[in-house]
Amino acid sequence: MKRHIPFAVLAALLIAADPPQAGPAGQRIELPEGVTHVAMPPGAVQWENVRAKGGMILRVTAGKTVVEGKRLFYGDGKLAVEIAATAQGMHFVQWTGWKGPGEQRISGNMDFSVRPGILIDGQLVDEPGLIWCVEPNGPKPGDLKPGSIYITTPSIKFERQAALKRGADGKIQDPPAKE
Q: pLDDT tens for residues 137-168?
């Protein structure tokens, strides 16, 4: 059974903590005052676009931890990707691709024509070991504004990389070997 944490209670508890906050692998994350940090447990991370009374929201689940919001930031303590809930799906704004060794499972439609990023209407599951590629000018945790929610996980890594050629599944294709 999933445990849903009401956003107001979660925000009140997490904002009360003094930065810097512990991130993945115990690293310290310097966040601006008023930014809420949620450290997800190790393991798969599931993203869903959910219809609610007030419109679409994002639901992120890892283990028994669940976070919901209209706009969230996802990272590893060094980088951040903005994800927004829209009527068309989840908009991963600074996303440029992903690569292994971990896998990513998607159910639903992907729209690569959205610039910047990608739009996914459905569900996305990040398996441990996955590497998210983020635009070179994407935000860092210290760039987030008060009221932002920053989600980290020790299971997924993030690196800066300009958009490269992708396969139909969105996974970055390995560049040809130089001879």
A: 888 898 999 999 999 999 989 888 876 665 66
Domain regions of the chain by residue span:
7-160
Look-up of token digits 């115990």: 26
Tokens 């987030």 sit on residue:
144
Across the chain, where does the E strand assignment appear?
A: 21-22, 28-29, 36-39, 45-52, 55-62, 65-69, 71-75, 80-86, 89-92, 95-99, 104-111, 118-126, 131-134, 149-152, 157-160
Q: Which of 62, 60, 51 is nearest to 88 (CA)?
A: 51
Instruction: Render 88-133 in DSSP notation, one character per residue.
Output: TEEEETTEEEEESSS-EEEEEEEETTSSSSEEEEEEEEEPTT-EEE
Instruction: Specify the pTM.
Output: 0.74
What lies within 8 Å, CB to CB, of 5 at 6+ separation is 65, 66, 67
